[in-house]
Write a structure and sequence with these properties.
This protein folds into two domains: 12-125 and 168-217, Undecaprenyl pyrophosphate synthetase; 126-161, no CATH class. Helix content is 38%, strand content 14%. It is built from six helices and six strands.
Length: 229
């Protein structure tokens, strides 16, 4: 294991998996979840099926969505037994296959009362769409007289996101040598520490998660403040 200070584990690690052409990779997801549990991580978020994948050829997209459904069904009992709460963020509409929507709903219901690590899976999550939906909901409250414009601030907007209890990621890991956030957790990642790795998602394992955490531990977080020295 990469040398880690187990007393300084970040609260939340988010991982942006590869973009077009990448598989869901059950082996990767299982090993990364196991690694996160091993070091006591409380929140792990993985962009499992990015919204950008809907621009791929239909056959490839269908294969990825079917794979996501299969992984959920295959792994949820084991995660439940270990106290993992599993939930998804992203659009849960008709463009998701019925079987995948059912698997997401059943997995969330099965693990909802668990108090161990929260595993959040991005499935058709679009950060800009999430922000637009939050602002539309706030606008409706203003229109209906339930909220005054003067009360709107960052906390109010955050409370209208898909998962209001999701803490901002301390670390956002980008795989496969890409150096963009890919529209993932746009609001939440404003002050995240970014870690870039050349390792592609299908090859990513707990050792790579540990390396990202070790990199985080070497940094000084200032959240945009000026270095006093």
């Amino acid at each position: 294991m990469t040398e880690l200070d187990l007393h300084q584990i970040p609260g939340h690690v988010a991982i942006v998996a590869d973009g077009n052409g990448c598989t869901v990779s059950e082996a990767t997801l299982v090993d990364v979840v196991d690694g996160a549990l091993e070091i006591g991580l409380r929140w792990l978020t993985v962009d499992l099926v990015a919204s950008a994948r809907w621009s791929e050829p239909l056959g490839e997209l269908r294969a990825v969505l079917a794979d996501a459904e299969r992984v959920l069904v295959a792994r949820r009992d084991a995660w439940h037994a270990r106290g993992v709460r599993v939930r998804a963020i992203g659009r849960r509409g008709e463009r998701l296959p019925r079987r995948l929507r059912k698997a997401l709903d059943e997995t969330e219901a099965l693990t909802a009362a668990n108090h161990g690590m929260t595993l959040t899976l991005g499935v058709d999550h679009d950060g800009r769409v999430e922000l637009a939906a939050a602002m539309a909901a706030i606008a409706e409250e203003v229109r209906d007289g339930a909220r005054k414009v003067a009360t709107i601030d960052g906390d109010v907007l955050a409370a209208h996101l898909e998962a209001p209890d999701l803490p901002d990621p301390d670390v956002l890991v980008r795989t496969a040598g890409d150096t963009r956030t890919a529209n993932f957790l746009v609001w939440q990642a404003a002050y995240s520490e970014f870690v870039f790795t050349d390792v592609a998602w299908p090859d990513f394992r707990r050792a790579d998660l540990f390396a990202a955490v070790a990199e985080f531990q070497r940094r000084e977080r200032r959240f945009g403040a000026v270095d006093p020295t």
